[in-house]
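User: Run a structure prediction on this.
Assistant: Running it now.
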Amino acid sequence: MEYVVDGGGSRAIHDALGPVLEEVRVLLAADMGLVLYRPRRRSDELMALASAAVDPAAAFLANEPVTTSRPLPGRKPRVVVELEVRSAMRELRARFATALVIPWRDASGIGTVLVGQTGGRAPTPWGEDPTARSELGRLVAATVRSGRETGSRQVDRELREAARRVAEAAVEATDVRAAIAAVLDAAHLLVGSEVAYLSLPDGGPDTFAFDQMLGIRTPDFRHVRVHHGQGLGGLARAMQRPVRSANYAEDERLHAAPVTITRGEGIVSAMAAPITVDDHVAGVLYVGDRQMRAFTQVDEDLLAEFTDHAALGLRRRLAENQRADALERRIREDVAYNLHDTVVRGLITIGFRAEQARYAVGTSEVAADLATIAEAAESCLGQLRGELGSLLSRGDIGGVRASEVLEQILTAPQGRLSRSPELDGEDIELARASAEALVRVGLEAVTNAERHSGGHHVIIRLVPGSLTSRLLVVDDGAGRVETGGGSGGPTTDHPHLGLQAMRAAVERVHGRLAVHKADPLGIEVHAAVPTWPGPERISS
């Protein structure tokens, strides 16, 4: 790693420059001294490496990005008047009535020493001796070089120590939470942050929730969930690299960020870095401070390198989750098959016997009662099969592409209707439960159209969205709509059991189902479900 400015927990350059700059300021009876630096690798970012001021409140932070009211001299020292240096991340500015400006260079970038008066005083001659000017530039350059070497060794040593701690915990920790705790502890020590926390997928690959935390105090912060692209972590996932924010609450890059909750926790500056396992973002690592801090490009590079080691601990977490998922699925399958072998077969027998008896009896009153029994058995059978299908599904674990939803609907038995599948939107992922609800509706609607519409064509249109996904199935048959078919609105002359199954599948994920007469012919089945069901704690 090219160590250009203070990185991670190191403040070696800042600390080395501080005494030198203060001595120069006092010697020249100046109000303020500043050392500015523009790294070659980030030529658009000028920063304050160190500052010394009569008023401590006017001092700049280590590595604080700044701008100047005029271009700085690039080659020769000179005296300037009316020069302003402004912070790029907060309301702070230093106005020099007069200042001695001494440029200097090294292999990594371009530096500038500013020493001058910030009050309303009249300009005062500075630096008449060219030799003294050159000596001051060489002194600052040598101090920066020495601090850089010291800091580089420190960062390298701390990174190796952090990697060792994570690797040992991944192998030796008694449980996975201990392994993750070691990752957070190593991260916060490496960058010298007050807090560290980890977010993991929750209810699908696009929604992440905070999992384990170090130094977090408020309960609200522990329940934050964010989508892809939202907040600092969402931005890091979208960009596939670490992202830093010196002033989280005022960062205009962040979309739908949980600003209120983060402010309540007291976090001002933070960084987030995606942790990649097997080419997928398996988690996001955060570090943050409760006071403003100017994280740098070196901090980003350091955190990115550390996440390669953090993936070791996360692999163990994912392996345990997979084992738990497999066990849960086996239990679900056992319960579902046991219910199928007992209750389902019993309902089939009841319905079959009731239908047989209905035609064997002579009185219309008994026949009506037997028909009611048969219909009740059929209704219960349909609802139970829907529940068993849900039990056998993987719920919200993983996602299903919209195109796969359409493909599964098209597996409905082919009759005489021609089919037009349409994907109206991007081929995004839906929560598995939502995808299964749409597949169930689509299969039922297409099958009913084949059997009962008497039409020639059916349109199957899926409109995936970031919040809601919609399915529309329209045939051109002679179906009719009747009202009063139970809760939720109209029914059709399609079998009532199919309508109940569709409604149950959609309502299970808090969606909506509507069935209407199409114009000019046929029946229109419209299902709307949340793309990723579940409550969210996102504050703007």
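The mean pLDDT is 82.
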